[in-house]
Design the sequence.
């Protein structure tokens, strides 16, 4: 078994994949002219660092892109062919016997597929590589290869094919990495725990240490694969230079519980959802009997009962699966956050206030926040399928055909020092489709408009809210167009039942005239102060529920207003396990709606490529 820089590995060349790539290589070779991706434009080669080849985002509306595939294409095709895929097994030391799995059986390793460019004079498999042959690597790391998707040696339509076909011809390596317990990686499915982090770090380190590597690795992905970049950042790998988390988790408990309220899947994520990935009927199934997997049986249900992370019990299960704090302390690279403002699979509160927290910690940060759901910025099929109030009004302006160019600009600079530094901005889209640039998100110039709930008209229901009833309030109409952004608040004075020790509230904000969804907030009343620190309530207690809406960016036209639908629960949140007895609300001085508002107009909006002008602008 050969060694590179003291790190052992196993590598297998998948020769049959080269045959499959011949049509792709022919397309790449035949479409290397400047107009192949961006018709009517002749930008300088993106491999040049003289003048920046990509116009500012406000000036791209006239650019035309190839939109014939399911994803966006760079406007200037690279000149390198794509080499055959390499199958690599990276050993991961340090897995303890007490962790179970490969800690007991030995030989923990993660598996990855690796694509490299064909560059004259560069022999990637040589013991040493000629000077000038080092390339950076972009890695997508996740659990789905061979588990609900293609194997790690096949370009995945989720993101892998997009990365391989766009960026390998520009001189990047691309890796598809299976986390422990999935694909051909052994050990157990640790669901974002410390063992999984060790496997991620091992893969990133290996990619950064090879003679053919320039020592810089970027991690990118969506959903689970968008959480592994945060986990990689928390690992402190010296080779990780940038992360691009899309709809990623900053922590497991951070997503599954909101003010003590649990998403329906929260209690079963480890064992009920992802645990089966490590069970495929072979001799390796015994490795799934690991510490984290066993803890998952009690950590989920117990957290549902308490609403918190069980730290007071001595359990570190959920704390181990929180990445943001360690990432902000240990990571030394840049951060490009991408999130759908209509993503209720991984809620937008994973993206902000994270955006500003990362800026405050000294990072280079960019954000891309569009009105799509749990999707990529450039996927037509997913964007057009959204319903009213959930992104439909913003379509087709949600589609960002310039996204591949945008990533090339980012990776060029942060992985190989090519070109001027990208602008560190937030590109944000409102629910009507308008895109604008902000310095951060939520914007720094937010102003708060406070509305007493006593000023709102009760149009349905009354003060007592049962598990089958709701109260609807119509608040005063706005005189002018009103743009509500970020995380507005609602404080409600609430009394729990005489036989209850808690209660549960869900508030939906809708546009008064149409009933269109604008945003929502949720709370277990034990957590009435907000956050993740609750307290036991005495029966009959009255509290002020200080609720915060999940991220939103909406425009309400003049003469219209917002209405509030107050119920015990909604979306996919589960009512309080302590009590589902009625809750009585009081619309007194303590009950207020706080609207975070910014002044923006047509002059502040930019038009994305390949779209008609905005209606009304």
Sequence:
């Amino acid at each position: 078994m050969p060694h590179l820089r003291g790190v052992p590995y196993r590598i297998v060349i998948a020769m049959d994949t080269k045959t499959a790539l011949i049509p792709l290589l022919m397309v790449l070779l035949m479409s290397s002219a400047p107009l192949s991706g961006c018709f009517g434009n002749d930008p300088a080669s993106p491999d040049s660092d003289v003048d920046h080849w990509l116009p500012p985002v406000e000036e791209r509306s006239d650019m035309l892109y190839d939109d014939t595939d399911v994803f966006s294409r760079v406007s200037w095709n690279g000149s390198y062919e794509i080499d055959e895929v390499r199958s690599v097994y990276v050993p991961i030391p340090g897995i303890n016997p007490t962790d179970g799995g490969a800690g007991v059986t030995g030989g923990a390793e993660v598996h990855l597929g690796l694509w490299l460019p064909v560059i004259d004079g560069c022999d990637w498999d040589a013991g040493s590589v000629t000077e000038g042959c080092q390339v950076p690597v972009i890695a997508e790391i996740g659990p789905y290869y061979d588990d609900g998707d293609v194997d790690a040696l096949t370009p995945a339509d989720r993101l892998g094919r997009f990365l391989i076909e766009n960026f390998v011809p520009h001189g990047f390596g691309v890796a598809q990495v299976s986390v422990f317990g999935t694909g051909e990686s052994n050990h157990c499915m640790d669901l974002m725990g410390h063992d999984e982090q060790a496997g991620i770090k091992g893969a990133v380190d290996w990619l950064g240490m090879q003679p053919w590597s320039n020592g810089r690795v970027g991690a990118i992905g969506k959903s689970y694969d968008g959480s592994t970049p945060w986990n990689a950042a928390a690992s402190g790998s010296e080779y990780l230079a940038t992360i691009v988390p899309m709809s990623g988790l900053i922590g497991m408990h951070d997503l599954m519980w909101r003010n003590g309220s649990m998403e329906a899947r929260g209690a079963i994520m480890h064992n009920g959802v992802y645990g089966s990935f490590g069970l495929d009927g072979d001799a390796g199934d015994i490795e799934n009997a690991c510490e984290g997997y066993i803890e998952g049986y009690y950590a989920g249900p117990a957290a549902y009962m308490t609403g918190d992370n069980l730290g007071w019990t001595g359990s570190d299960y959920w704390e181990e699966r929180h990445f943001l704090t360690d990432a902000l302390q240990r990571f030394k690279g840049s951060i490009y956050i991408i999130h759908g403002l209509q993503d209720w699979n991984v809620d937008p509160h994973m993206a902000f206030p994270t955006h500003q927290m990362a800026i405050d910690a000294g990072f280079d940060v960019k954000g891309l926040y569009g009105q799509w759901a749990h999707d990529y910025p450039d996927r037509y099929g997913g964007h057009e399928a959204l319903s009213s109030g959930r992104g439909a009004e913003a379509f087709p302006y949600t589609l960002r055909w310039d996204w591949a160019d945008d990533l090339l600009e980012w990776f060029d600079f942060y992985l190989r020092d090519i070109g001027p530094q990208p602008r560190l901005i937030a590109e944000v889209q409102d629910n009507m489709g308008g895109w604008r640039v902000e310095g951060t998100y939520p914007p720094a110039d937010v102003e708060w408009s406070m509305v007493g709930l006593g000023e709102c008209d009760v149009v349905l229901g009354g003060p007592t809210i049962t598990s089958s009833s709701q109260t609807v309030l119509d608040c005063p109409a706005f005189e002018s167009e009103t743009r509500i952004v970020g995380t507005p608040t609602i404080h409600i004075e609430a009394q729990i039942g005489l036989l209850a020790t808690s209660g549960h509230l869900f508030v939906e904000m809708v546009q008064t005239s149409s009933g269109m969804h604008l945003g929502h907030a949720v709370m277990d009343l034990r957590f009435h102060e907000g956050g993740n620190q609750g307290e036991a309530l005495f029966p009959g207690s009255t509290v002020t529920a200080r609720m915060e809406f999940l991220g939103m960016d909406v425009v309400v036209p003049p003469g219209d207003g917002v209405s509030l639908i107050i119920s015990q629960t909604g979306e996919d949140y589960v009512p309080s396990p302590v009590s589902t007895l009625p809750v009585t609300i009081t619309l007194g001085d303590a009950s207020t709606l706080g609207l975070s508002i910014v002044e923006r107009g047509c002059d502040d909006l930019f038009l994305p490529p390949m779209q008609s002008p905005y209606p009304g602008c």
Observations:
- The chain has three domains: 3-253+322-438, 255-319, 447-598.
- The first strand starts at residue 3 and ends at 4.
- The radius of gyration is 25 Å.
